[in-house]
Amino acid sequence: MNKETKNIKKLIVNQSLELDCGKIIKNFPIAYETYGTLNKSKSNAILVFHALSGDQFVTNINPITKQEGWWATAVGPGKAIDTDKYFVICINVLGGCMGSFGPKEINPDTNELFGTTFPVITIRDMVRAQIYLLEYLGIDKLLSITGGSMGGMQVLQFASLYPNKTYSAIPIACSASHSAQNIALNELGRQAIMADPTWNKGNYFKTNLSPDKGLAVARMAAHITYLSKKSLQEKFGRKLQDAGSLKFSFDADFQIESYLRHQGTKFVDRFDANSYLYITRAMDYFDLEKQFNGNLSLAFKNTKSKFCVISFSSDWLYPTIENKEIVIALNACGANVAFVEINSDKGHDSFLLKVPKFLETLSEFLNSTYKEINNEKRI
Amino acid sequence: MKKEFEIISQIIQNNKRVLDIGCGDGTLMEYLKFNQQNDVRGLEPQKDLVQKCIAKGLSVIEGDAEKELVQFPDKSFDYAVLSQTLQAFLFPEKVLKQLLRIGKQTIVSIPNFGYWKVRLHLLFKGTMPLTKNLPNEWYNTPNLHMCTIQDFVNFCKEKNIKIDRSLCLTNERISEITNGNMLYKNIFSQLGIFLIK
Question: Rounded to whole angstroms, how far apart are CA atoms B44 and B104?
Fold first, then answer.
């Protein structure tokens, strides 16, 4: 868990926001980062939503973790989301742990860290909180909004809440309502954290310990769901860690074990266990269909945005069929929608990796939308 | 742009909502959208073609018409367009029924199996016809249900489908099909284009 908050841009929202749980928050911080330059007509802004384990540092070196940004494959100069051309904004979600209002912030009422006294937030709360930054930046209408996984859910929620605030929307590898399987997998992660005795009902900040073991296990389990069976098999197979032979112990004999352990430990250095609980909860609560009494197409009934829905063939966490339900709902209300399933055997993580067909589609869709808008403006 | 698309664009005119089924690389859609200000959607089963369309700024969904058409509401388009694809479906009748439901009007074009070169090929060579419009061998052709202009007209009559216009193409020349010239057109046309509802 990092404690540095320097190098983090923050907006303190002094309006009050009523959360879905009924609680009202005010004077809360949202941390953000921007890349590229906003043009004069403010028509080149793209809002990127991050996923469960992401943060506002989309590309370049993350100043806190010193690692490359989580979407450096897609965002940067000359890349699919070209920061020479577009102005890219990303905001740390509500409940996050990279400077936005979340369980590791101080509760002004008690002067203590929130921990699990932080209100349970939803995807809709996350999206509503982000609109303040757009107002602050003076952006009336975005060129596009995009994100994968939980980022894609925020895209859908944003498009539904603000039908006139973006010219286009690119939900990637996501779903309009979290499936039982996804809730189950998130619950597994939460239970791993809560079973760690140092979690201390969320009050670990009062001790010098933190539930690193629990959080690492949660991350290991989640990491498996981001990959496909084929990619695991091809990358690791039954390869042994020390080329020799089995050690007849419970050390990491297999490369896959050591890889997962590494992923787990790496994650606890940059992520807060309580945040993990809150964000996974928000994902589980997400059900856009239910927000509209079981008719998903009503969620998009007023939308003017042009959609491009993208899924990946080997993604079993947010499979094509769930992405297609979004397309079907959009078509049912006559919205403007394109859809393509990208062939990739890299699983759910495909959207974060160098998958050329995916990056091409992303780039070309943005490019054509940008051109269309600027032609419109000339007329 | 090929003559067939010119004719279809002329029928559609401007500012309409159009669904192009089996839109390929989006040539017709592009013209309808950018030259005639139509609001166009496409459906295409091949990924690489869908990507080409998206790159052109066209809203195309990857999918198979035999499964995907049910998602579109009744009469949600002014025109549903099916260009030279009807014969490639497993159940062309079902697809046509969906098109008539989705579109206020439907434009269907069919390669004419009654064209004289096709007839002569089968008559004299005794093998499945290969022509410019039908370039594939019997074992790798996507065409499962070939028909003639006469077949299609008979089919419409039988199913109570109203034909508003029947056009045919012969060596890039367009003409109307009437009751009087049907026999002749069914021999000398390569392509039939029908506006039905």
Answer: 21
